[in-house]
Amino acid sequence: MSTSGMVGVGVVALSRSRKRYFDAVGTRHVVSGRKEMEGEEMRSDVGSGGRRGCEYLGSENPATSGKTYIPTGWLHEFGSYGLANVQGTPVTSDTMSSIASNSKLFLAYSVRLLINNSTLREEYGKELKWTTKARDVFEEAWKLMDGDMDRGTSIQDILSHRTGMPRHDFSTATGQDGVAQMISTMRYLRPSAEFRQTFQYNNLMYEALSYLPRLLLNQSFESYINQHIFQPLNMSSSTYSIKVAEGREAFAHGFQWHMRDFSRGINGTRRATVPYFFRPGEETMWAGAGGILLSARDLATWVSMLLNDGRHPYTNKTIVPTSVVEHAATGVTVSNGKAPYPELSPKVYGAGQWRYSYRGHELIEHGGTAPGFITQVARFPHDNLGLIILSNDANGLWLTEAVKWRLVDDILFEFQEMSTTNPLRPRYEEIWGSHLSASQTHTPRPDSPTPPSAPLEVLASGTYNHPAYGVLQPCLVPPQHYSLTSHSDHLHSSKETHAYHVHAHCEALLTSPTAQYIFSQTNLSIPTLLIPFKRTFATHLRLQHFTRNIFNISVLWGNAELRRAEGYSYSGDLHMYAGKAEKQHILPSPLFPAGNGGDEGNMLIGLDENFEVERVERVLSAPHFSYLSINIIMTSYDREPYCGGDLLMSEAYAHVFWR
């Protein structure tokens, strides 16, 4: 089925004061029990062509026969639009998707539940506090490069993103050693700010805290959350398991933009990421920071519990202590010291929660971004209102934000929209235009670039190792792939084939399906190196010479080899890009002849996310060793329009040593 139409969007509005809010959205359909009923379409300026239903949930009245829901109960209204997968299955309130970094609040609550665990104190002699130092918990496994960070980082510092450590997301591999190994390698990651001086979003630190149940109770983090949150709230669809999720028909496909390259004006093709980008067995590495898979229905129960101060929304039983809910939502670090627009306030971050105000109403929220999935979960605590917007489109951030603010204006301000005085559409257009402009703005390579200080074959023949970022073994793309090769570009290049297959994997790598996709979208008149880089959010690094010892690097993710290994078919579609390639010397791959038909599953992303690398030679005195250092500096650009979501691109600082 074609996916050129609208992919999935799920919207949930929930409240206990139904008349004040939901009359503004549309006709209510109150039902008993948990069976969703179809209702009228939501307002056309919010969405159309979907399903909506209401659930009117409250306390059971034991004095009557059957189940009667009293009028002070919760009202959940679901709006479901578009497609959940490539089979064309419509989105419903039971469709499962990734909530990405909205998983962080579950992690924060798990820490507090451990703090409240009297058994740890009485039987194990262990005690946690918000102020407990990480080094006292993780002991010899914990060490950071900066002394102040190493000694001073507390659990609260980690939860509030004020350690001084940038993201370093690409330092994490999906190996068997898991979170314990990740913690032990953080000592090799360079900070980019002073300790406690600024807000820097960091997934790795959250992952470190997900190891606490294993460390203190010998229980996995996933089972701990299932025991203390999922089961007590009857969140029956919620799981961290990829195998479990993929075994359910309700699991959505995340759509991304294959071969997108804004730097060349190519939008790419929207495709479903099949299979899911995590594979069974890899979940633990990112469980705490962004691993939950669940339905909108389960998420509605979760947000109702938050609005009910940590008590079960239907039984009033305490699930999370009220003090814990308040603590996580209380600002510790200032993330945005200045309001970006007049109707907003500055933003503060507590633990897995941003807090700020909108038109005088206080708002607590968090966003989430995973490959092909965007989520936004917000609540107005003083208005008893919660909003959940889920999208399975990598571009869904724009939609989730627009829907969120439109619903807020409709419900809280009775259609007195901000757009009447301060239009939101021009803002989005300006932000998107700035993003496109930045993507297409780059310093052109000199007409006569200066060759690097050493032959490219020397760079390609090395093995570069970093304790956290792993081993890099570059493969130099052979000259027969180049067109219009200049003498200066290849001043040091040998024409002998063996020079390009120094590493055993190079021949297979350079002829692999993903490499062919990369070459089809690469200006191969420029000397190019390709490096396998198996990480959670990356599979390859592409280095292209700029001048002297400076290279441009792209961090790429492709799934062609994974799809082949798991039995998915593929065929060529690279001819689709040949027209764009002609003026830029981008050659169609011989592996995929033109007219061979397109494959709707293979994916390549990251072509226009470019960074700068400088090769720095350093020889250090040591017995039997000399080191060649490559200093890699990756800096992110802001892809966050007007929301509290998180991004995959990261700042990363690494020294990669060849020895």
UniProtKB/TrEMBL annotation:
<feature type="domain" description="Beta-lactamase-related">
    <location>
        <begin position="72"/>
        <end position="396"/>
    </location>
</feature>
<comment type="similarity">
    <text>Belongs to the peptidase S12 family.</text>
</comment>
<dbReference type="InterPro" id="IPR012338">
    <property type="entry name" value="Beta-lactam/transpept-like"/>
</dbReference>
<dbReference type="Pfam" id="PF00144">
    <property type="entry name" value="Beta-lactamase"/>
</dbReference>
<dbReference type="InterPro" id="IPR050491">
    <property type="entry name" value="AmpC-like"/>
</dbReference>
<protein>
    <submittedName>
        <fullName>Beta-lactamase/transpeptidase-like protein</fullName>
    </submittedName>
</protein>
<dbReference type="InterPro" id="IPR001466">
    <property type="entry name" value="Beta-lactam-related"/>
</dbReference>
